[in-house]
């Protein structure tokens, strides 16, 4: 799901009318994050940058002072921004209002009172002096301005057009009403989310249940391991539910009360039996996998795998099922310290392959795959032919869910 970061005006909060209206308008289509901003500008920008790093929004929407911040941050972080009635001269606004004030909408910390003084004005003056320093010609079309024709507080469209190209008007005042947000802000935000979608260049696949149909071999091997070690019986469904976890984690999930030493013995036994089983039960790819990988590679996409199985096993199986030549990079459980849903496997691939999270799509059949991608800031795609259910993938927040491997070609082409 797309994310929008809304930055409110100086006297407002994350619960102001425009924020609430934006959140309601995008319900079910995009997550709107609208935090309370610190009153001091340097702290506010630092807070916004940290939030962007953590949440990875697709669009910034700011109003008044929030638009002032959005304009400074957008070119630096490479995220498009919609500026509603941006106030580029906050010092003049504040000089006329020195003294004690109250926020006009509730703050989450309950602190509604604040003071405008000379120190605060000086802080804004310092920031105003450098507010356009990060503008660049490559970003002139990715910051849009929306100006109220009845705005009596901020008249900065000429200044905006010195640096950016896209300017729009709406028949409203400085602070938009809920109706004006729905009629003017939302359509522009929708257009920007569509226009400035960063194309996918790197695809990170899960292996078991996504590319390789290994369920029968895995479950059979687990049952043979359980029997050989005389452990309490488990159903095939219980065994299958652990697919996607590191091997030791699978047995820990099934037998939480056994010792770590015995868990290691389970893993060793499983590996031996799995290797033996491969001689008689050859895993295959799911329908459409081989052809889709060939098409994607032919179109220039970089294809990689992040799996919970060992690196050695991953190499062996990818060759056995005939997909190795399409894959550029493999990450196994023994290549990282933290397993899914921790983002480390994805972050390692991004670092080693030199791609950005915004250029990446993680594809998997389990909630842990989707959460791994989300935690790393990538787009995510769930597949329904593996071990997880559609509902589990939806609950994990998958951006896309597909029923056939071939559908992936259209998704990355549209991106």
Description:
The chain has 415 residues and is of the alpha/beta class. Helix content is 43%, strand content 16%. The protein has 17 helices and 16 strands. The protein has helices spanning 17-25, 41-55, 65-77, 90-95, 118-128, 157-163, 178-195, 215-228, 236-240, 247-254, 260-277, 289-298, 311-320, 344-353, 367-376, 390-396, 407-414, and strands at residues 2-7, 30-33, 59-63, 81-84, 99-102, 113-116, 143-148, 166-170, 202-205, 212-213, 284-285, 302-306, 329-331, 360-364, 379-383, 400-402. Strands 2-1-3-4-7-8 form a 6-stranded parallel β-sheet, sandwiched between helices. Helix 8 (215-228) packs across helix 11 (260-277) and helix 10 packs across helix 11 (260-277). The chain starts with a strand and ends with a helix.
Short description:
By secondary structure, this protein is of the alpha/beta class. It is 43% helix and 16% strand.
